[in-house]
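To the wet lab folks,

You asked to see what we're planning to order before we commit. Fair enough. Below is the target structure as tokens, and below that is the sequence we designed to fit it. If anything looks off to you, flag it before the synthesis order goes out.
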């Protein structure tokens, strides 16, 4: 099979090619091309735009169009694959995405062309789960604030008072979304001897230490709410003003998934007015976060620059992980069907 892999700022085309060749060997003819965005901010903004609006607004450069013309499979991490690119590849049979979501692929058009679309679920699940735990502890135990106080020449102040913080044991964590990442966060926080509640209408079998509940019940009972759902039309602003109002006044809200899951203005208002105690955010409606954002000036929120999934293992292991999925599919294992399998049967 002729495979063209498209590298980006975060994951080079050479690294993707090496991963595929390592697993699939002589069964594939891998060619690589590097998307020439070389600025991190530009790459993040392009990715955020595609997540919000899909791939069709992307005009593919001629050098990428030339490299994919005879491909039987395209593989990308962040580079958008729109309808024009799909139609340009007359022999295209499959598209691979080195991430959990497929927001950057024109999936409906691919299905119309009978082209399989594969994602890479769990490729950064460990990275995001680990970071979520760290963000939760950083915000609720004043880790960053304590460091800032010392960095400014003091030792402690009233905001760091221990009687305002809590042990994890006996507290309640509410997970919105129980996919690969949500399950890993649940396992990690179960080790802290917490009660774990979750809302996920698509959840299958769950560990016995996780209790599935309706969304409103999770929000009313959780001390910490952590977002791990996919961003779809149904989940956009799933945490709006009304839902945030259901949370306890001493509860915290964390988001290491997609910014669109939370109404950012409603959250900022709730934090400023003390209707919830705090928040930890790694994703934002605009990135980099604008200087005028009210979130920047709030004392009860920890902000990080969209870094939860960024570990060496998450990036470099993605190609190997997808290649293994493809090999299993080619060997007839039904558990590795493409994400548009149902559409292809129609």
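Sequence we intend to order:
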């Amino acid at each position: 099979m002729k495979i063209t892999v498209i590298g980006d700022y975060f994951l080079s085309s050479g690294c993707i090619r090496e991963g595929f060749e390592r697993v699939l060997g002589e069964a594939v003819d891998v060619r690589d091309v590097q998307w020439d965005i070389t600025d991190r901010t530009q790459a993040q903004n392009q990715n955020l735009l595609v997540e919000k609006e899909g791939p069709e607004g992307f005009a593919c450069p001629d050098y990428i169009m030339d490299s994919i013309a005879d491909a039987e499979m395209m593989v990308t991490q962040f580079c958008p694959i729109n309808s024009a690119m799909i139609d340009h590849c007359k022999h295209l049979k499959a598209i691979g995405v080195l991430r959990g979501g497929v927001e950057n692929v024109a999936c409906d058009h691919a299905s119309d062309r009978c082209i399989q679309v594969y994602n890479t679920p769990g490729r950064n699940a460990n990275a995001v789960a680990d970071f979520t735990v760290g963000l939760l502890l950083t915000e609720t135990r004043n880790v960053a604030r304590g460091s800032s106080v010392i960095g400014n020449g003091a030792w402690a102040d009233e905001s760091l008072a221990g009687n305002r913080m809590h042990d994890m044991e006996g507290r309640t964590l509410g997970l919105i979304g129980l996919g690969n990442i949500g399950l890993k966060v649940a396992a990690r926080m179960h080790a802290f001897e917490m009660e774990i509640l979750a809302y996920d209408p698509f959840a299958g079998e769950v560990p016995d230490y996780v209790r599935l509940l309706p969304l409103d019940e999770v929000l009313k009972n959780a001390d910490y709410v952590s977002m791990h759902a996919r961003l779809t039309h149904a989940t956009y602003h799933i945490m709006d003003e009304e839902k945030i109002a259901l949370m306890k006044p001493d509860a915290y809200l964390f988001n290491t998934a997609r910014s669109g899951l939370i109404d950012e203005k409603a959250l900022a208002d709730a934090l400023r007015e003390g209707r919830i105690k705090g928040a930890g955010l790694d994703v934002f409606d605009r990135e980099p976060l604008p200087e005028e954002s009210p979130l920047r000036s709030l004392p009860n929120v920890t902000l990080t620059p969209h870094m939860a999934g960024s570990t060496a293992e998450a990036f470099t292991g993605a190609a190997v992980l997808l290649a293994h999925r493809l090999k299993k599919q080619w060997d007839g294992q039904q558990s590795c069907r493409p994400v548009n399998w149902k559409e292809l049967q129609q």
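Structural context that might help your review: The chain has 14 helices and twelve strands. Residues 234 and 304 are 26 Å apart (CA to CA).

Thanks,
Computational group
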